[in-house]
């Protein structure tokens, strides 16, 4: 029996803690054709100095060489609080994931072309942050890994599902999903507000979070992360909350 969909793409809202977020173009304002024609890869920036102790540690590990930017990690948004969509509760928290058989689930219901393309780019074994979104305190709560690469999303063909798409055909499905498995909880909850503070600082000093999609494309429920971005955010779990 299919479980509730994990998505917040079409008609998504910014996180409740981000009322002042400036969004140049919402997903619902972008036509399907425009989204489909967009490249799955966001523009690559260049890494610069400025994130102090964390960067010094990474330099000592790599011999001081800056790595080429590639997107090999992910951030997956899911709603931990009940919300009805066409009569179906789309709530799915990290505790719901942990309660699934083998702590594994399909990540279905994505209805945005760019987010879908990111899903299709995921590889087995890659890790992602499980991010609680559209709630009182949004932020990162856990780490999951990709255990099955993209395949057709069954919900697009289910007329009873809130994400049913009458324009999609089984011989040529529009929408994909992947399977993810729980890895571990982060050592502490990493709130959006803390990540945003580092993002703003890195915009000035050239740190790894300066172009993080969590702030440049807030409404996307599937977001890519560079190795540097993933490592930096993960390093925050070792610090005392601000």
Distance between the termini: 42 Å
The run of helices and strands is HHEEEHEHEEEHHEH
CATH class (first level) name of the domain at 71-236: Alpha Beta
Instruction: Report the β-strand fraction as a percent range.
Output: 15-25%
> Roughly how many Å is the radius of gyration?
18 Å
CATH topology annotation of the domain at 71-236: ph1033 like fold
* Proportion of residues in helical segments: 10-25%
Order of strands across the main sheet? 4-7-6-5-1-8
Q: Sum up the overall morphology in one term.
A: globular
Low-confidence stretches: 17-35, 37-50, 62-67
Number of helices: 7
Secondary structural class: alpha+beta
Overall mean pLDDT: 82
What's the β-strand tally? 8
The major pleated sheet works out as:
6 strands, mixed
CATH superfamily of the domain at 71-236: ph1033 like domains
The second-level CATH architecture of the domain at 71-236 is: Roll
GO cellular component, one term: nucleus
Function: Specifically binds 5-hydroxymethylcytosine (5hmC), suggesting that it acts as a specific reader of 5hmC.
Subcellular location: Nucleus
Region (Disordered): 1-62
Structure in a nutshell:
By secondary structure, the protein is an alpha+beta fold. The protein has helices at 32-37, 52-62, 94-98, 113-121, 192-205, 213-216, 227-235; strands at residues 71-78, 84-85, 88-89, 104-107, 127-132, 139-152, 176-191, 222-226.
Folded structure, characterized:
The chain is α+β, with helices and mostly antiparallel strands and 242 residues long. It has a domain at 71-236: ph1033 like domains (ph1033 like fold, Roll). The chain has seven helices and eight strands; from the N terminus they run H-H-E-E-E-H-E-H-E-E-E-H-H-E-H. The protein has helices spanning 32-37, 52-62, 94-98, 113-121, 192-205, 213-216, 227-235, and strands at 71-78, 84-85, 88-89, 104-107, 127-132, 139-152, 176-191, 222-226. It has a six-stranded mixed sheet with strand order 4-7-6-5-1-8. Strand 5 and strand 6 form a beta hairpin. The protein is globular and about 50 Å long. Mean pLDDT is 82; it is low at 17-35, 37-50 and 62-67.
């Amino acid at each position: 029996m299919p479980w509730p969909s994990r998505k917040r793409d079409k008609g998504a809202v910014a996180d409740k803690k981000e009322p002042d977020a400036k969004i140049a173009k919402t997903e619902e304002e972008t036509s399907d054709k425009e989204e489909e024609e967009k490249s799955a890869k966001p523009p690559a920036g260049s890494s610069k100095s400025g994130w102090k102790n964390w960067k010094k540690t990474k330099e000592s590990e790599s011999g001081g060489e800056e790595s080429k930017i590639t997107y090999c990690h992910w951030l997956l948004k899911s709603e931990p609080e009940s919300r009805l969509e066409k009569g179906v509760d789309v709530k799915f928290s990290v505790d719901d994931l942990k309660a699934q058989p083998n702590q594994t689930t399909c990540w279905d219901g994505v209805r945005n072309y760019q987010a879908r393309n990111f899903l299709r780019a995921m590889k087995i074994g890659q890790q992602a942050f499980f991010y609680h979104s559209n709630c009182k305190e949004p932020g990162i709560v856990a780490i999951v890994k990709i255990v099955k690469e993209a395949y057709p999303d069954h919900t697009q063909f289910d007329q009873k599902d809130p994400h049913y798409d009458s324009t999609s055909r089984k011989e040529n499905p529009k929408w994909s999903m992947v399977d993810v498995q729980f890895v571990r909880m982060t050592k502490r909850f990493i709130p959006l507000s803390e990540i945003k503070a580092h993002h703003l600082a890195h915009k000035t000093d050239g740190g790894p979070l300066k172009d993080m999609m969590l702030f440049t494309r807030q409404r996307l429920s599937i977001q890519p992360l560079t190795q540097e971005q993933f490592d930096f955010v993960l390093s925050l779990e070792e610090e005392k909350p601000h």
